[in-house]
Amino acid sequence: MQINIITLFPDFFTSPLKTSLLGRALNNKIAEVNLINPRDFTTDKHHRVDDIPYGGGVGMLLKPEPIFAAVESIPRLPNSEVLFMTPQGQTMDQSLFKELSQERKQLIVICGHYEGVDERVLNLVDREISLGDFVLTCGEIPALTLINGVVRLLPGTVGKEESLKAESFETGLLDYPQYTRPAVFRDWEVPEILRSGNHQKIAQWRREQQIKKTCDRRPDLWEKIKDEYN
Asked: Which domain holds residue 178?
């Protein structure tokens, strides 16, 4: 997969793109990330990318010309999608990451900044994406989340792909409690069932724990899926 990030702050991504699973995936050519600065596409001597909004208001808006030029400089591949990071967009979740990892070969991600972008930039955009119902200082933070969530689902990124199937949200439920050695730590014991060696009972216990945790911690999520488990 090729991921192109339109960002005024390419240095924001330098360390995360070299770290852990994400860094290994890029080194192994499972995915490719290109950082494109719209400031490089300005035509004035000050390389200005923002201006005051028509009609007045607080703050500055990103101008459309540099963003259009940056996006249009990217050779488009089949199954490509342009995404804009904004609090007004579709909220990220696991199903979105799965969709993008399975159905797209190229993503172009536009990171907003200041008070947003000129509305005409949305003519470039296929979908608006949000990290949640809150406002951040820049679109680079949700963009990095999106990259991480999508790339880790690409074949070859995670060593044991079976582990992806047991994660939270893959079945609609939160993950079950997990333990490792020692068996007793400060009087807290690992549940006996997990030490029993009875894999059928362990699987049953884990599913019961998933349901309980989802009911307790995410009743909103449980309401959406409870009919599947009754």
From this structure: 166-228
**d(Cα 32, Cα 158) in Å, to the nearest integer?**
16
Read off the amino acid at residue 62: L
Residues linked to residue 90 through DSSP beta bridges, in sequence order: 129
Q: Please indicate, yes or no, whether residues 41 and 125 belong to a single structural domain of this protein.
A: yes
98 occurs within a structural domain: yes
The total number of structural domains in the chain stands at: 2
The model scores a pTM over 0.85: yes
Residue 120 lies in a domain: yes
**The domain boundary residue, chosen from 123, 151, 179:** 151
Q: Which two tokens stand for residue 69?
A: 């030029």
Alpha-carbon torsion 207, 208, 211, 216, what sign?
A: negative
Please tell me the distance from the alpha carbon of residue 44 to that of residue 7, in angstroms, as a whole number.
19
Question: What is the full per-residue pLDDT of the chain (230 aa) written as tens digits?
Answer: 999 999 999 999 999 999 999 999 999 999 999 999 999 999 999 999 999 999 988 889 999 999 999 999 999 999 999 999 999 999 999 999 999 999 999 999 999 988 889 999 999 999 999 999 998 999 999 999 999 999 999 999 986 565 555 555 667 899 999 999 999 999 999 999 999 999 999 999 999 999 999 999 999 999 989 998 87
**Residue 159 covered by a domain:** no
What residue ranges in 45-165 does DSSP mark as E strands? 50-51, 61-62, 80-91, 106-111, 127-130
CATH of the domain at 28: 3.40.1280.10
* Domain-located, residue 183: yes
